């Protein structure tokens, strides 16, 4: 089994994606051998009212049973965002909450960011932080969002010690630095942008944070799934139990998902 923790549904305003709706994502998953995907709404990133994207996401994935694991997206600068989050958690049983401060115009360390992080912690859910959607070298000139940075991540982790973090599409992470910020046992990192063989980023993170900190992620449909499948294959030398943790068990446990 493979659970992909780094996937999205929806249109992206700056280029056409290979898969843009649930049906196309299912086709991509089936072709790639992905059993389940943790998905959030791209529309929630760019709509003025992010919650409309959450509603669309639930409508799209409903016919596909357990293939999709939905993640809420909230914008703490938008009116009544607390009610939106409550609906996502209590009505739709979403398993995590995405924040995109670089697109919604706030900081994780300002009053809006702190309010959102505190509310997510109250629900006992992980927060999903995607470092970036696209490589800035190929971005549209209207896409001016900055990448999330490690310094802000570690500061937020120290300020919110109850909160768990799903780190999606990150690179440049130091296991030692994350552990010093109290993130050992509190974070799950997908390997879509990390090296298994060349720079051995993933083996070093496993050494410092434990194998429980790593999960399969592809960043589909922005990126091809193949490179992440190769990374997973390169981890087959691990003990079988550890390989399964990275392929799917860590994701299921971190997000409290039945399998």
Structural class: alpha/beta
CATH architecture: Alpha-Beta Barrel
How would you characterize the largest beta sheet? 6 strands, parallel
Helix content: 40-55%
- CATH level-3 fold name: TIM Barrel
In CATH's first tier, which class applies?
Alpha Beta
The total of beta strands comes to 9
Question: What is the 3D shape?
Answer: globular
Beta percentage is 5-15%
Number of domains: 1
Cα-based radius of gyration, to the nearest Å: 17 Å
Q: Note poorly predicted spans.
A: none
Task: Enumerate how many helices there are, as a single number.
Answer: 11
Residue-averaged pLDDT: 95
Order of helices and strands: EHEHHEEHEHHEHEHEHEHH
What's the CATH superfamily, by name? Metal-dependent hydrolases
* Widest beta sheet: strand line-up: 4-5-6-7-8-9
Report, as a whole number of angstroms, the end-to-end distance.
10 Å
What does this structure look like?
- This protein has 259 residues and is of the alpha/beta class.
- It has a single domain (3-255), classed as Alpha-Beta Barrel (TIM Barrel), CATH 3.20.20.
- 41% of the residues lie in helices and 13% in strands.
- The chain has helices at 22-32, 42-46, 50-61, 81-91, 101-104, 111-123, 150-159, 175-180, 201-209, 226-234, 240-254; strands spanning 3-9, 36-41, 68-70, 72-73, 97-98, 127-130, 165-168, 187-190, 214-215.
- Strand 1 (3-9), helix 1 and strand 2 form a beta-alpha-beta unit.
- It is globular and about 50 Å long.
- The termini are close together.
- The model has no long low-confidence stretch (mean pLDDT 95).
């Amino acid at each position: 089994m493979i659970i992909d923790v780094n996937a999205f549904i929806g249109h992206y305003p700056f280029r056409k994606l290979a898969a843009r709706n649930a049906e196309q994502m299912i086709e991509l998953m089936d072709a790639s051998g992905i059993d389940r995907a943790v998905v959030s709404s791209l529309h929630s990133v760019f709509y003025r009212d992010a919650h409309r994207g959450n509603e669309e996401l639930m409508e799209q994935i409903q016919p596909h049973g357990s293939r999709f694991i939905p993640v809420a997206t909230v914008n703490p600068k938008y009116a009544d965002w607390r009610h939106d989050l409550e609906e996502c958690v209590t009505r739709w049983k979403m398993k995590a909450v995405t924040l995109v401060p670089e697109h919604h115009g706030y900081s994780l360390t300002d009053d809006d960011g702190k309010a959102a992080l505190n509310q997510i912690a109250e629900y006992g859910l992980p927060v999903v932080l995607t470092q970036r959607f696209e490589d800035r070298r190929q971005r549209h000139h209207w896409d001016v969002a900055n990448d999330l940075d490690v310094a802000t991540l570690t500061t937020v982790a120290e300020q919110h010690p109850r909160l768990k973090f799903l780190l999606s599409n990150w690179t440049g992470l130091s296991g030692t630095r994350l552990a010093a910020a109290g993130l050992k046992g509190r974070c799950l990192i997908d390997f879509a942008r990390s090296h298994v063989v060349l720079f051995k980023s993933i083996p070093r993170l496993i050494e410092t944070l434990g194998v429980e900190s790593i999960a399969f992620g592809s960043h589909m449909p922005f990126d091809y799934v193949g490179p992440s499948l190769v990374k997973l294959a390169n981890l087959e030398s691990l003990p079988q139990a550890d390989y399964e943790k990275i392929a799917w068990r860590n994701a299921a446990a971190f997000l409290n998902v039945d399998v």
